[in-house]
Amino acid sequence: MNRSIYTKLAISNLKNNRKTYIPYVLTAILTVMMYYMMANLAANSPMNQEALQIILSLSVHVIETFALIFLFYTNSFLIKRRKREIGVYHILGMGKPQLAKMLVIETVVTGAVSILGGIFFGTALAKLMYALLKRMIHYDDKLAFRMSWEIAGNTVLFFTLIFALTLIYNLLQIRLANPIDLLHAGSQGEREPKTKWFLTMAGIIFLGIGYYIAITTKEPLKALQLFFVAVICVIIGTYALFTAGSIAFLKLLRKNKNFYYKTKHFTSVSGMLYRMKQNAVGLSNICVLSTMVLVIISSTVSLYIGKEDVLRTRYPQEVYITNSVSDDVENKKLHDMVEKICRDNQVEITDEKSWHMAELVKIKNGEEYTSAMIKDNSSSDIVFFDVIRLADYNQLTGERMELGDKEAILFTNGENYGKDKIRIDEETWMVKKELDTAPFGKKSDSNTENVYYMIVSDEKEFMKDYLEKYQLEAEDKPVKWRESFNLRGSEDQKLKAVKELKAQAESEFEHTGVQGRYLEKETFFGLYGGVFFIGMYLGSLFLMATVLIIYYKQISEGFDDRERYQIMQKVGMSKREVKSSIRSQILMVFFLPLAMAIIHIAVAFPVITKLLAIFYLKNTKLFFGCTAGTVGIFAVFYVIVFVITAKEYYKIVE
Questions:
Q1: Which of 250, 238, 248 is nearest to 282 (CA)?
Q2: What phi and psi values does residue 261 have, to the nearest 5 degrees?
Q3: Which residue windows are transmembrane per the record (predicted)?
Q4: What burial class does residue 500 get, using C-beta atoms within 10 Å of its C-beta: 0-12 exposed, 13-18 middle, 19+ buried?
């Protein structure tokens, strides 16, 4: 045979298998397009948005991993459906070298169309994506978006490598199989599946571990450390339960004679038994991808909608000024400068607070807080002490508290300390009073740091003892002065005043820093807008994968059920009964991954709220609303996809 015959044969094969190849090529085009656009966005991200740059770069690597795994998975489905066809070619006289040439041409055609199509559409839509990203992060620049030829070349090389690897896999499948195995590949796996109790129990244990971590983890930083452990456990448990647990459960139903030996139950249980064996991996993939879509979208939408709440949580007051080397004369000059700048910009200072404090970091060691690092201490053992002078506390609250030597008033940002003594570096302090509220901090059950505000009669004496004990110079652990306030005026006037204040204060006073809502808004919007953009972007990518797996599942079941449909009619069942039985099986199996995904996200809800607290989002009601809305919309979309793909299924069966 000459080369043109192989080319015509390959093109003819692609046309004859268009129901499976067209979705595959379209998905490959979308994957290439999304990778290419993301790589260009990462290269063109605003230079002053370092956090966004990191997020976009990480997203490129996520898409690389996804593309490799997903295209391999879909290719394995295609070659499985084609084995019988290839076996026929082999029996008709084509040798394995000739079959290999045909497969090479098919891969070259699909790969070229996918890569070139992805780069074409990626080029067309990249500027639109860049404009959308800038809008989400509230970033306004005049720089033109530039496409990179280097990125285009890297995209071609990366996806050429993936298609080359899929081709090698396909050639190995043909080389290692004989013609008889190829002819019967479509009917392999018809034996009754074995009960794998060990795998079933492993699935239950792994799922239980993942759920236990999600439910019992209380501290945000510990949640961050354990979250990925829980995710891996849940993924392993999901695959194991779909693969082995479902079969074990169905066999238990079959042993119940009163339940099993009824017409409807008999056909449903036996049909699902074989269906679960053949489609367990596909169902697991749908469940895992659905869970990922729900978690990513609900979390990122919550962060984006709640970014103003996040900013207020991070900065309860609008402006914070800190002089890290407290000097009363310098503090007075600084305060006078603040008032002048605010007057010049026609904004009024309100809710003003100022206090002196010393900052210490201690490690909790039993009942004592020490400066020495304790072996194997966790983040929950680290405690930040803000030591505040009593005079400042009385001025802030209007109280007239008095404290003696080694007496303190205590306020914690989390659970109450609850004891009448506290021991710090071998010194015991009497807790005269523990506060439930304080003007310099807030309580929360989802803090990322343990902060103890310790009010003493004179923080300088406290620090003097500390400095002498550890032989430190005064500048190593100085007493700081902090002032915070809100502003009254227009938003533009406030922003102008704060920017001028920051520039002048930090240039004229060596140890002074200015922070606040208006100064951090651009950074916050860049971070959370970028996270929202990436969440929607990756969510769309995973959703696309879910749709394609669902489509291939329906096509696969259509071919399997067509033969089963005929056999069941031959043994006496009516066409209506057969159709009803198969429909009930499909509905039960098809919606099982969705039900499992909803259970996963419901159990993961507590631990995700702790993770969001690290980003200062503590509005649980907002996250619950976003999660419920995401689940509802996804469920509707899932049903629509089922209805559309079911039409292809019934065409094949009938």
A1: 238
A2: -85, 60
A3: 21-39, 51-74, 103-131, 151-172, 197-214, 226-250, 280-305, 525-552, 586-616, 622-644
A4: middle
Phi then psi for residue 255, to 5 deg, are -70, -20
Model confidence pLDDT, tens digit, residues 280-306: 777 788 888 889 889 989 998 998 888
Q: Is there a contact between 385 and 360 (Cβ–Cβ < 8 Å)?
A: yes
Q: How is residue 57 written in tokens?
A: 């770069």
Alpha-carbon gap, residue 170 to 178, rounded angstroms: 14
d(CA 32, CA 114): 7
Q: Determine if residue 133 is left, alpha or beta; phi over 0 gives left, psi from -120 to 50 gives alpha, anything else beta.
A: alpha
Q: pTM for the whole thing?
A: 0.76
Cα→Cα distances 259→234, 251, 267, 586, Å: 31, 12, 12, 20
Buried b (16+ CB within 10 A) or exposed e, 324-348: bebeeebbeebbebbeebbeebebe
Dig out the tokens for 136 from the structure.
């989400």
Distance of CA 569 to the CA centre of its chain: 48
What's the one-letter identity of residue 503? A
Instruction: Give the DSSP letter of residue 483.
Output: E
**φ and ψ of 293, to 5 deg:** -60, -45
Residue 217 near residue 226, CB atoms below 8 Å: yes
Q: Which letter, b or e, does each residue of 449-460 get, where b requires 16 or more Cβ atoms within 10 Å of its Cβ?
A: ebbbbbbbbebe
Q: Are 181 and 571 in contact (CB under 8 A)?
A: no
SS (H, E, C) 560-573: HHHHHHHHHHHCCC
Residues in the chain: 654
Terminal-residue alpha carbon distance, the chain: 38
Side chain identity at residue 564, one-letter code: R
Assigned token pair, 350: 């309100």
Task: Quickly tell me which residue has 């209007």 as its tokens.
Answer: 398
Contacting residues for 567 by C-beta, under 8 A, at least 6 apart: none
DSSP 41: H
Residue type, 332: K
